Amino acid sequence: MEVISPEGLRQDGRTALCLRDISCRLGLYERPNGSAYIEMGNTKVLAAVYGPREVRSLSKQNLDECVIQCEMSRIAACQGERVRRPRDQRTRALSLQIAGVFHAAIRKTKYPGSQIDIYVQVLQADGGVTSACINASTLALVHAGVELVDYVVSCTASINKSMPLLDVTQQESASGCEVTVSILPNKGSVVSLDCAHTLHLDHLDEVVDLAMKGCQQVYKAMSQEVETYLQDKHAIMSHR
Amino acid sequence: MADISLSEAEKRYIVDGVKLGIRVDGRERLDYRQLEIETGLVSTANGSARVRLGCTDVLITVKMEMEPPPPQQPNDGQIHFFVNCSANAAPEFEGRGGEDLATSLSAMLDRLYSSPLSLDTSRLCVVPGKHVKVLYVDVEILECGGNLFDTVSLGVKAALWATRMPRIYITGEDGGELEFMVSDNPQEVDRVDVSNAPILITHLRITENLTVIDPTPEEECCGPVQVVVGVTPKGLITTTQQLGAGTFAPQTLSASLKMEVCGKEGREVMLMCYGEKAEKRRNKVLSFMDRKRKKWCLCTGVRIGREFDCFLSVLRTKWVTSLC
Fold first, then answer.
1. ipTM of this predicted structure
2. Pairing of the two strands A67-74 and A114-124
3. Closest residue to A31, CB basis, from B61, B86, B145
4. What is this structure's pTM?
5. Hey, are the CB atoms on B289 and A232 less than 8 Å from each other?
6. What residue in A sits closest to B43 (Cα-Cα)?
7. Which of A103, B143, B252, B256 has a CA between 20 and 30 Å from the CA of residue A25?
8. Is A79 in CB contact (< 8 Å) with chain B?
């Protein structure tokens, strides 16, 4: 099946440069210090943050700054085929990647000798899983009140027959590539860049630019949700 | 679950409250917390349900696959349970920390559904001896707030009720192997009959002769022992298990078993009647996006708090008269 029809529409009716619908929510659970849920199209991710708290194993303790750990798992029904093991090598690799991204964003020197744990649960996976995990973790950290340099926002982009695509689903990335970019939106700096499958060097610039533009749109949606949440909690005055 | 540490004074407070008939959150000994059930959240699974009982949150998904049956049971389908305690629920479940709890939960669910009376597995058979439907039920613990067994069993029942399996037609034979056609019509689905499916009820013994239903994590710290009973709507007990390092006096045990049979009815009636309503009115799935957190049940949008208390209070008066 073609990724883009001759009229310029994709399988789910979007145009090439259109982002999927994003809905997110902060503060689902009471037990973790911070929790958030995000839906980017059909990709649904839940994140919980415990911390800053005492370090579990003293060997990992760092007295200058905090330790950041992440664990990602998938539920069995997240894809069409049943996933037998919730945590395997692939999710461990992604967990390390997510933890690495937040090393740049969290003000670690403010929490010396402590630990921040980020737990991510993928409920449904349809392309852009790493981005959704990073976005959900950012929201959960915001809810937990952890000091951040800036939001970390992530988005995917791809290219199909010289046509750049924004926010690809699993089906679309299977026939091309999937480039995941995470940025600090207010500074505009890139925190992580990850490419799956093959991408020609000539197309790299335009795909990364497109992904960064997509990140700014995601940032708008996420900050809107944070403001709504804070207004609901009467933390900031509403000007309406 | 063991992350809560209580002082001796707090434990005394809880225990003395139960002796007076009042628990810390204002409930009586046999009251359940606020219960919310939603089905149909995960579109990639054949059936899914999310149950929230107080602070405990579980997500159950059911997936159907076709497999050859084991030689001992050639004519019956199968049902397998897998429980995953994710680290979201409690930080001590990180890595392999939640495995013990997960194993005991899945073993309990296996025993709960082991009886042919609870779930008729012969209806899951496609071709006797060659192909049967296997239901993989995956339980995901999202938040651990006490009383996991009850919540998980309610969720499993709701998810099985919501399971829609596409109808399978045998189109012909090709060199000894049968050919199947899976129906694409969304209306042509097979459902699982859960009218006799049991659920678990947990009784926690707080002090001499007194048990509480639906314990919170703080109460679980105080009580030395709990008994978990699986009961079907008809009042049959499919499984019992005692957990914890403590003992039950025989009178306490039999009294709590009798109560469980009665308490079962209240919930069953509620599940059945809301199930019918859900069939007629397909409301929008609220799931995680629900902002106001009103008490919705099975996507019908009916406030269940008051109705539920009504049911239980009616049954409680019956218990008192029968036990006296």
1. 0.85
2. parallel
3. B145
4. 0.84
5. no
6. A124
7. A103
8. yes
